[in-house]
Structures are given as structure tokens and as C-alpha cells.
Specification:
alpha/beta; Rossmann fold; two-stranded antiparallel ribbon; 6-stranded parallel sheet
Length: 239
């Protein structure tokens, strides 16, 4: 008798200033491997939107069949703050932290954040709107986010960047405890936003006897190395 092939639904939760557009090249790679993928647009441009609002958007995008499917919530960078909130409602879900690590459920401590990000990101030039939302300048975005992407892809991505409200970082999570779900981390070795050394140092605190996957390249492997990232995600989801 043959084995039943497990099909996963990858729920791709984008990071700060990004949107569903950033999964453009990863979704077809996951589908090519026989899986499904969705990538909601979080309300990051709304300065009043918090983690509960982000989670509600993700939950609303899940297919009706989600309760019977293997769900893999993938949080890129700041998207990792939303991952445990949505995973808590799905007992068999898995959580993947991409270019990020799990963090405490309270507001992100500024001192911890300073160790989490690279000096290049901490000192980058940001534009700011009157409502407090921010966006990294286009001149800084390319070298920070897309330095290992093709020139056309990097230029396209810089043009897509959205404004980002601060609330998901400054407010506590609506959860009172972390959900008991399988966790995985994927770290980009040459990340210019999230310090790889910091992420790897955090991993043993959260992962139970497993090690993070380390991919070459920068903060946007979904655009620079979508096939390699798809292989890593599928491997983690089906182990």
C-alpha cells in the first residue's frame, strides 16, 4: 500500500512594511510541490491596528476546510508576532519563524529590539507620516531587504513597500500564554535586518531539541531564493 501524501496549507504572514506581494515567487514554488499557500494583506498602514486586528485578517482568509488541513503559519520578521495568536486556535498547526524568532507576549522591549536588529537597520533612514506610521526610505530599503535579489526584483519590491504602524511592537499580545505547537526557525545567514547571531542565540530557548535551518542570503529569501525556501518549509512542515 502507498503512503497518503500530506498536503499542507502554508499561511504566509508578511513582515513590517510588506504585503501579500512579497510572496509572489514563493507561492508557485510551494504549489509546484503539491501544497497550497495563502498570503493575507495585514492592515499595517492603519496606525490603530494591533495584533488582534492582524490575526483577525489572517483568520478570515483561511479556507473553510482549514480545520481538517495541516496548517503551517509562517511569520516573516514582524509577522512572527501574529503567528502564535492564529496558531492558538488550531490544535495541529505548526509555527515557522522566518528571519525572526519567537518573542515574549508583552510589548517588545526596546533594549531587546536593539540587540535583535542590525546596526544598519537601527540607523536606517525612515520616512514618517503624521499618524506615526513609518516606512524605510527607498534608498535604504534595497541594501537592507533585497541586496541579494535580482536588480529588477529589488527595484519592484522597493516600490511596493507600505507604511507600518507601531502598535504590533508596542502593545502586548492578546494571548496569556504561548500555544503548545511545533515551532521551527529559518535564519538567513547574511541578514541585514535581523541579526543572525541574535536569532541563533534565541533558538535554544524556544525550539525543543531541534536546530534552526540556516539559509544563505539576506532578509528576503522568498524573493531571492524562493525554491530553497520552499524546500525548507516543506521539509519542516512534513517532518
Amino acid at each position: 500500500m502507498g503512503h497518503t501524501r500530506v498536503v499542507a496549507i502554508f499561511v504566509l504572514i508578511h513582515g513590517s512594511m510588506h504585503g501579500s506581494w512579497c510572496w509572489r515567487d514563493l507561492v508557485p514554488e510551494l504549489e509546484k510541490r503539491g501544497h497550497r499557500a495563502i498570503g493575507p494583506d495585514l492592515p499595517c498602514e492603519d496606525s490603530e491596528a494591533g495584533l488582534g486586528d492582524y490575526a483577525a485578517v489572517v483568520e478570515a482568509e483561511l479556507p473553510v476546510s482549514a480545520a481538517a488541513e495541516r496548517l503551517v503559519f509562517v511569520g516573516h520578521s514582524l509577522g512572527s508576532r501574529t503567528v502564535p495568536i492564529v496558531a492558538e486556535k488550531h490544535a495541529e498547526a505548526r509555527m515557522v519563524f522566518l528571519c525572526s524568532a519567537p518573542t515574549a507576549l508583552g510589548p517588545v522591549d526596546p533594549e531587546a529590539f536593539s540587540g535583535m536588529v542590525t546596526p544598519e537597520y537601527a540607523n536606517a533612514d525612515f520616512d514618517q507620516r503624521a499618524d506615526g506610521t513609518q516606512r524605510v526610505s527607498k534608498s535604504a530599503a534595497g541594501p537592507l531587504f533585497y541586496h541579494d535579489c535580482g536588480e529588477a526584483t529589488a527595484a519592484w519590491a522597493c516600490d511596493q513597500l507600505r507604511w507600518q504602524g507601531k502598535k504590533p511592537l508596542t502593545e502586548p499580545s492578546p494571548l496569556s500564554s504561548w500555544p503548545d505547537r511545533r515551532m521551527h526557525m529559518i535564519v538567513a545567514r547574511d541578514d541585514r535586518v535581523a541579526r543572525p547571531e541574535w536569532l541563533l542565540g534565541e533558538a535554544p530557548k524556544w525550539l525543543e531539541g531541534t536546530s534552526p535551518i540556516v539559509l544563505p542570503g539576506g532578509h528576503s529569501p522568498m524573493l531571492s531564493r524562493p525554491a530553497a525556501l520552499a524546500e525548507a518549509l516543506v521539509g519542516e512542515a512534513l517532518d
